[in-house]
Amino acid sequence: MNSLISYISSFIKRAGSYIFLATLVSRVFSFLASWIALQLLQPKPLGNVLYAWNFIVFLTPLVGLGLHQSYIRYGALLKSDEEKKQLLNYIIRNGIIGSVIMTLLVLVFSYLYSFQTTEINNYLYILSLVFVPIFLFETIKVRARLEHQNKRFALLEITYNVILIVAVFSLSFYGKTTGYAFSFVLTPLLTCLFFYQQLFANTTTNQKPHFVDFEFWKYGFFGGLSNVVTLLLFAIDILLIGAILKDPEQVTIYRYLTLIPFSLLFLPRVFITTDFVAFTEKIGNANYIRKYIKGYLLLFTLISLLICLTFYFSGIFFLALFDASFTKYNQNFLILTVGICGILMLRGLYGNLLSSIGQVKVNFYITSVAIIVNYIANQQLIPLYGIKGAAITTACLMWMTGVATLVCFHFLYKKFLLSLK
């Protein structure tokens, strides 16, 4: 119990409560922005914008070729403020170039590939401009975390979502769907303008930092790829249900069944966002890391038990909030809930610890294997059990990937500690 109290106390001291509050506010504001768009725009053209935006979202983890992810890991290991400033300038220069390349690639793709309607191509032209602003915004957030300014990080998140609501309302009202598409580009851009000073750092030299090498670039790129395949892992169930069952209603039901369990994934993100820099700075201290793991596991074991008990006794109530007909899928809902606990307890922690020791590529490999297993298993289980088969596959893979990250971390961490001697 002392470990749990100490863990929560450290989380609060690092302004974790601000990040928690900012995350909740951001989710509410994001939902409100979506609701506003639905009220102001016609469903069909709105759907075309969202289709194009989902394509862009799939690529956003790779903005700046993932350099902002290298920035947080390598920046946390640096002791000198001068080196951190040099790294920031290097990240900004090269990340902008990488993001511009992504924009050009999407523009070329949009020009060459014909979607079912030219409107989607036109929206992709607009939305391709978002990569540079998103990269700069992510970099500003990383700098706040590296400087242990989690309050500033929380302010960044809230500012972004306030601007999003204003942009969505005003641009959708006056510019309809085109304005709505531009709101996605202008929101991170305007947020960066509010915090533009965080994009600059005065240094004695603008030369490439001496520690930047191929491994530095590879870390960021694999970090981006890992996030891309994670998005695909969560999306593949929907795609396979639609392809195998050919029943849009079952796709809709499954999407709503996953809505509540998947929304709980913000919990480990809040803690890891708060603590990643702190435990990366001390990653060579085995006692500290063991203490951190113990505190995290105690907390999220209790949270997972509470979630399972709540949904076991009240799952039908929550499903009825969507539609009374959904209650007959309560068992599927519980299966997904148990699966989510595998991420809450294991993968959320050990996946980030792997990143902290520079083994982000292992996360990519584990998730890639999971996608293959998901495809093979669902090809067998969905025809037999319908969406319940998809729920079983997803739940099992959540625990399997969690256990895989646990085993890989403990094995690789021993090697990492030996490399420090």
Automatic annotation (TrEMBL):
Protein name: O-antigen/teichoic acid export membrane protein
Domain of life where this protein originates: Bacteria
GO CC, alphabetical: plasma membrane
Signal peptide range: none
Annotated organism of origin: Tenacibaculum skagerrakense
Cell compartments where the protein resides: Cell membrane
Membrane-traversing stretches: 18-38, 50-67, 87-111, 123-142, 154-174, 180-200, 221-244, 256-277, 297-321, 333-350, 362-378, 390-413
UniProt keyword terms in alphabetical order: Cell membrane, Membrane, Transmembrane, Transmembrane helix
Pfam families documented for this protein: Polysacc_synt (PF01943)
